[in-house]
Amino acid sequence: MSFVSQFAQLTDFLYLSSAFAITRERLLDFRITHIINCTLEAQSPNELEIKTTTFLQIGDNPQSRLDEYFDKVADEINDVVMQGGNVLVHCLGGVSRSSTICIAYLMKHKKMKLKEAHDFVKSKRRIIRPNIGFWEQLVNYERKLFGSNT
Q1: Is 38 a catalytic residue?
Q2: Domain Tyrosine-protein phosphatase: where (predicted)?
């Protein structure tokens, strides 16, 4: 199975994948209760039988302002987890946008510095690679959260 078609389990409750990997059966198998969709095209939650989907509608280019969503989405993931849910974060390839959101969550709620969060996510899904614009936004987010950069 290729990495593009896999669900990467980052924590007991947080998963990362591409849009291509999502099937109704997989969502049921992994007990996904909430989806964070970081693509430009929304898939109907009714098709997937998921009650809650957050749609960010972000392009994968260095000029896209994904950082505008870091706090909101990290807090949303944390809220779902506190209620006992499981979250899937995905973008088209599961490489840049979705990994950036997962890294931001780990930085904010697991108190990981950027390098630690990046290395952790990469250990679970080798193909991640936030684009240069998203990386710069994560560097700034790390400075905002921790007062310095690693």
Answers
A1: no
A2: 6-147
